[in-house]
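Hi R.,

Here's the input for the uridine-5'-diphosphate complex you asked about:
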Amino acid sequence: MEKRDLIYEGKAKKVYLTDDPALVIVDYKDDATAFNGLKKGTIAGKGVINNRMSNLLMQRLEASGIPTHYVEELSDRETLVRRVSVVPLEVIIRNIAAGSFSKRYGVKEGVVFDQPTIEFSYKNDDLGDPLMNEYHALALHLASADEIALIKRYAFMVNEVLSAYWKERGVILVDFKLEFGRLSDGTIALADEISPDTCRFWDAQTSEKLDKDRFRRDLGGVEDAYSEMMRRLT
Ligand code: UDP
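And here is the predicted structure with uridine-5'-diphosphate in place:
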């Protein structure tokens, strides 16, 4: 598979064309940002860990009946994925109150919900990814009603699969963000990444944070937390 032009460079990843128009290569960086790009830094080795973890989890999800963009891991930091047109929604599932939910509703971090919640943000950096409901997404033609229904179903399926997977490894899946895309035939597929950058992971015994909150909140031990999650994975 030949790597061609760089078509996109985001905060944590670069995307390259290949000789197959249906496939692109994702290259994971160690760069980290938080608070809509206000806080910047690097987390040594993060790209390698996020690449590996995301790929393993995507394969697990694919096996559970959720279509994903994953095709093949090419190297430590590079993965071949199906090219999608991104649905500009960040889909967030929560099992436990934390982060922006705790702040918005004035509830302590760690409150366990009776059932998981779902919410959407409009993926738009200039606007700061504002929270939106599905009627807003429909009004702005971000996705069809059928697509939104499917995205919701997949997102809750992902939560079931990954919560159980991490539980076996002594990790509580607190919350996470997903992004979906459309393949050329319109099929909705899970895209982007699933990693400590996009999930909150708490140690089941100690509740220690093992994710990007260590970077966001200057808790220290950022690299160690990513390495520990990698260790739990394998
Ligand atoms: N999240 C993400 N990208 C974003 C916003 C959130 O990956 O742009 C993830 C975040 O890591 C967490 C979950 O989505 O696992 C919920 O994040 P929250 O809304 O609490 O926002 P935060 O407190 O991170 O600003």
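One thing worth noting: The CA atoms of residues 48 and 77 lie 5 Å apart.

Cheers,
M.
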